[in-house]
Amino acid sequence: MDFTKVTNLMESLSGVGIPGADLAIYIKGKEVYRHYTGFAVLENKTPIAPDTLYAFWSMTKIVTCAAALRLYEEGRFLLNDPVSDYLPEFKNMDVQRTGENGAVTISPAKNPIRVVDLFTMSSGLTYNMTPNLEKLFEEAGENHTLKEFTAAIAKDPLYFEPGTHWHYGFSHDILARLIEVLSGKTLGEYFYDNIFAPLGMNDTFFRVPQEKQHRFVTCYTYDENEKTHKKTENPPLQFLNPDNKFESGGGGLVSTVDDYAKFANTLCAGGTAVNDYRLLGKGTIELMRTNHLDEVRMKDHGWPHHRDYGYGLGVRTMIERTAGGDNSNIGAFGWSGMTGTHVLIDPSADLVFVYAQQLVPSKEEYVYARLRNVIYGCL
Question: What pLDDT is attached to residue 60?
Fold first, then answer.
């Protein structure tokens, strides 16, 4: 296969403000293309390298959902179980409701939050900072546990009735707490024992070891008018402080393109890794990449660059090609991270690609669709 068009696109990204870009493409678990360009640190012109470490932010969510589904496969919970069966702090929740006159009232929720609502971003939780979360962050910064985080957010009203809307938010952090309660381990311990160590993901962690911190990429913003970059507040405390307690199931992992690809290729192969380690069953992955949203929640999910996608158990999943002009296959799934990281997993084509950069805003709408379309055009 000739991936010259992919290389041309990658090399053009500096022209729209991407300081550095890193891409690997795999077919049937074998790397068929790798290209990295630009800089990890602009100030001293440190180039992107194969072992550059990136904050993968919300691509953590797929790992969290896969970890929770391992417990599902052990019979530890059912998707329709109330979350309060395992996290009693979520029993008898209130909902914040806005009337036609704009008045806000608080009243008891009619529905319990179900475990599936956490997977599908339908729990009533958003990324708004609730009063008790704000208090927790003021008092402890990032240095609090998932248990403390969960206890704080459960004290405040939900933003909508569970199961009735899709809204991106803290749902997967609460799912991470469920993993801790059911496994008896911290999230990091469970990830390491059940995913990272078995798959050989030696460069994936919540806190970057001191001896590897020099490999951590710098994140930038880009001024479109001045055509200049500025450092964001980077490196963030949560990634580099060895004493930090918070392990965010929604956005806390640092990894390399190669390491994350080991996880993605395992999902693409039906849940069994190249070393025969069984991460998940094929049927569970099929359930994961099936659209779980009804008509109302599909409208909520209607981000412009998600026109062709539904939402499964923690992943966007391609359900039709025409609305967004998508040349990938039905059932291709994945997610992105805040600074522009992407993963696409397509079992029908035995295809995986993992892409990384570090820019906010990330220009995801520009980069992701072009990257996807050009890659499929080369197959």
Answer: 98
